[in-house]
Amino acid sequence: MTADARPLAVALMGPTASGKTALAIDWALRFHGEVVSVDSALVYRGLDIGAAKPSVDERRGVAHHLIDIREPWQPYSAAEFAADALAAVDAIVSRGRLPILTGGTGLYFHALLHGLSPMPEADASVRAAIERDASERGWASMHVELAGIDPEAARRIHPTDAQRIQRALEVWRVSGRSITDWRRERPMQRFPCRVLKIVAAPASRAVLHDRIEQRFDAMLDAGFLDEVRRLRARPELAAHPRPLDLPAIRAVGYRQAWEHLDGAFEAAELRERGIHATRQLAKRQLTWLRGELDAVTADPSLDRARLEALISGFLRR
């Protein structure tokens, strides 16, 4: 059997507040690496505190890719991410450096490492027609329509997830086939690197919940609400008819802060809702990560010696 001669890469996956960012930066500094963000919130400019975006100081000395590449009102698909990330990985490898893929967005990781099934391209006119229908009927009604077309997709997609409802209906209207049917086709792609997959996560769910609570409080103390006020003042967002339908504003924490500033509830409830939403995100991330059977799980705070042994052994290959 021919030896696998592909270059090496690290996939540092994990739920929110698990310590991925600090570990990725440390390894990038020590192992001549560059960080490729695999996070659907970090692509947006202006989502800093609430997205736990690495600061300018933290990024100093370590090249980071796919951070601050879109405005918060601009779309960005998993397919676009996969293409951009593959280009970043190729460039990193060409410089003789180690790609360190870091984040917690499962769809992005899947698109990058395994490829996406073939799918019809976006159609601006069909998308606009769906948006008009939604403005008249509401996204809950559009979700009911989706359930009649593609019950499996409707079970996967939350009735308030406008972006995914729209895409599923768009695929149906463009092709006459459901998005579930399209996804059954196998993607034709092999990732260009051998990958060490690590899930950074504490063994105890209670520990993770405590970290989430502490981090959300720290974000509030750091001026998270002022950050959201600045976003609301952006002309493109202030004029948007449904800002809460935008993926950037639906990001965990931002949605709750936006609704609070709309007057929907008081500051104390914002904290409760923000922490609850972040814990729910972590739960979904952990569910996805359980399917990564070839990944090694370790807590960066407690299992550092084990992690060091893992990456040292991998890099000696």
From TrEMBL:
Q: Which cofactor does it need?
A: Mg(2+)
This entry's Gene Ontology molecular function terms read:
ATP binding; tRNA dimethylallyltransferase activity
| UniProt binding sites for substrate | 16-21
Lineage from the top down? Answer: Bacteria, Pseudomonadati, Pseudomonadota, Gammaproteobacteria, Lysobacterales
Per UniProt, which keywords does this protein have? Answer: ATP-binding, Magnesium, Nucleotide-binding, Transferase, tRNA processing
The GO biological-process annotations, alphabetized, read as:
tRNA modification
Q: Which protein family is it in?
A: Belongs to the IPP transferase family.
Q: Where is this site: Interaction with substrate tRNA?
A: 105, 127
Query: What is the protein's given name?
Result: tRNA dimethylallyltransferase
Q: List the InterPro entries.
A: Dimethylallyltransferase (IPR039657), IPT (IPR018022), P-loop_NTPase (IPR027417)
Annotated region (Interaction with substrate tRNA), positions in chain: 39-42, 163-167
So where does ATP get bound? Answer: 14-21
Question: What this chain does, per the record?
Answer: Catalyzes the transfer of a dimethylallyl group onto the adenine at position 37 in tRNAs that read codons beginning with uridine, leading to the formation of N6-(dimethylallyl)adenosine (i(6)A).
> Does the keyword section mention tRNA processing?
yes
The cross-references to NCBIfam families, in alphabetical order and at most eight, read:
miaA
**Can you state which reaction this protein catalyses?**
adenosine(37) in tRNA + dimethylallyl diphosphate = N(6)-dimethylallyladenosine(37) in tRNA + diphosphate
Under Gene3D superfamilies, the record lists: 1.10.20.140, P-loop containing nucleotide triphosphate hydrolases (3.40.50.300)
- Per the UniProt entry, the Enzyme Commission number(s) are 2.5.1.75
The record's subunit annotation is:
Monomer.
